[in-house]
Amino acid sequence: MIKENHDLQSALKEYIRLLDGAFYFEAHEVLEEAWHPLRKADHPLKNLVKGLINGAVSFEHLKRGRKNAVYKARTVMASYERYKRIAMQEIEHAVLLREACAHIERLKHQHVEVFSVLVS
Questions:
Q1: pTM of the prediction?
Q2: HSE value, Cβ hemisphere, 13 Å, CA-based, for 96
Q3: How many CB atoms lie within 10 A of CB 34?
Q4: Which residue, among 90, 88, 76, 102, has the nearest Cα to 19 in the 3D structure?
Q5: For the chain, what are the domain ranges?
């Protein structure tokens, strides 16, 4: 379990760094690798981490500007929206998880035309 925790911590740091650089696909990949052991172990953070992965995917859809990108971005963002409040609890990696959520929230504000319903 200690190795998984370390891997999640490192992955979250890298995820945040990649989001800062608008490398959304890469951010998704880094965090997904750390998510697999959480999912298999039915870890309490699995849904929140999956939501963060999907948050990054939303911005990748927008970045690529493909057909239905807005619809796809909104649809995928729903997973993040469902679980983001978990980060407000006193949980493992709370500081990094809150920082990752704050990055997603800032990106949503930058794309208010897409996420206007979700931006407060």
A1: 0.90
A2: 18
A3: 22
A4: 102
A5: 2-115
Contact 87, 48 (CB under 8 A): yes
Question: What's the average model confidence in pLDDT over 77-92?
Answer: 92
Residue 1, pLDDT above cutoff 70: no
Nearest-5° angle of CA 60, CA 97, CA 92?
145
Query: Alpha-carbon torsion 11, 17, 18, 20, what sign?
Result: positive
Is the pLDDT at 58 greater than 70? The verdict is yes
Distances (CA, A) of 5 to 1, 11, 43, 54, 107: 6, 10, 11, 20, 26
Q: How many other β-carbons are positioned within 10 Å of the β-carbon of residue 67?
A: 7
The Cα–Cα gap between 38 and 45 comes to: 7
109 vs 119: CA distance, rounded Å: 6
Reported confidence tier of residue 2, pLDDT bands at 50, 70, 90: very low
